[in-house]
Amino acid sequence: MFGEPVIVACFEFTFSFYPGALKRCFQCRSRGDLGSCKDQFKFNGTTAQHEQGVEAIPCASGWCGKVIEGTGSYKQDDYGMATQRMCLQRGPSDGEERCAYTVWNHAKVYMCFCQGDLCNSADHQKINFLMFGVPLLLSAMHIVTV
């Protein structure tokens, strides 16, 4: 009766905003061209199960992070850039999602904070559009064609 797009949109809306819904974060670390944690991150909750070193773990705080080290003066070193994805014990004090340069573990890094299920997979603005914009667009198209 409602069609698949409406069901998908309702499920994603409920899962994203229901306070008791399970939130997960990707957990992994890669350096340079080695490993699967670096950007372009190509995994979702299902495909990560099959990739060594990449996990989708439960996150009690609901806040995920991504840290990129080596974007400074030593970028050309043999070690290259390191990317780490993780669950954060708590979000930023202002509760705002963002990406910015900061000092973390005594090093200057580029760090992103996001809140939501597996939000540290890619650019957070892209995820928000894919989670809400596409299902809503498909739902509207379905309603118009019915």
TrEMBL record:
Instruction: Report whether Membrane shows up as a keyword of the record.
Output: yes
Which compartment or compartments is the protein found in?
Answer: Membrane
For this record, the Gene Ontology CC terms, alphabetical, are: side of membrane
Q: How does it sit in the membrane?
A: Lipid-anchor; GPI-anchor
What InterPro entries would the database entry show?
QVR-like, Sleep_regulator
**Pfam families under this entry?**
QVR
Example GO biological process = sleep
Q: What is its main location?
A: membrane
Record key words, sorted: Glycoprotein, GPI-anchor, Lipoprotein, Membrane, Signal, Transmembrane, Transmembrane helix
The name this protein goes by in its record: Protein quiver
List the source organism: Frankliniella fusca
